[in-house]
Each structure stands twice: as structure tokens, then as C-alpha cells.
Design goal:
Number of helices: 3
Shape: elongated
Distance between the termini: 40 Å
Strand content: 15-25%
Number of strands: 3
Number of domains: 1
Largest sheet: 3 strands, antiparallel
Length: about 90
């Protein structure tokens, strides 16, 4: 469940994240929220990649190559891109 509201004049932003109200400064909370969504997306794609689906493997490679939701690592990105290419050939 996700809902949000801005308390005008107070500079506080609150969101309901998984049933818990989280409040903080607008910019900081938004950045943390986006980071948590990227990490969640990464974990979901990682599960798909580990089931030998080429799209999931290529997506994980893209995440590592660009540092999306994870620390940038071109060696790991290359590993996942190669796995995706091999799956496409099979």
C-alpha cells in the first residue's frame, strides 16, 4: 500500500510504505524511496535472471553496467550479458 501527503508549510513529506508511515524532508525521502524501488526491481529481475531467462539476465547486466539499484560493476555486467547471449543462442 502506498499513499503520500505533503504537510504544507512544515517541509515534511510522509509516505505509507508497506503499512508503515515514514516521514522526512522531501528531497531526502524521495531519494530514499526511489532507491528502495530500484533495489526492489533489481531483486525481482535477479530472480528472473537466476531462472535462466535471457531478458532477466540482460536486465541485470544493464543494472550493473549503469549502477541502477546496485554498485556499478562492469565485470559483473559483462557476465550477465554473456549469460543472456548464450540463452538466446540455445
Amino acid at each position: 500500500m502506498l499513499a503520500s501527503n505533503y504537510l504544507e508549510g512544515k517541509g515534511v513529506f510522509c509516505k505509507w510504505i508497506l503499512g508503515e508511515r515514514v516521514c522526512g524532508e522531501v528531497a531526502l525521502l524521495e531519494e530514499e524511496f526511489i532507491d528502495s524501488l530500484l533495489l526492489l526491481a533489481f531483486k525481482n529481475w535477479e530472480q528472473i535472471a537466476n531462472k535462466d531467462f535471457a531478458l532477466g539476465q540482460a536486465t541485470i547486466g544493464h543494472y550493473y553496467e549503469n549502477g541502477i539499484g546496485v554498485k556499478k560493476n562492469v565485470k559483473i555486467a559483462a557476465y550477465w550479458y554473456e549469460k543472456a547471449a548464450i540463452m538466446k543462442i540455445k
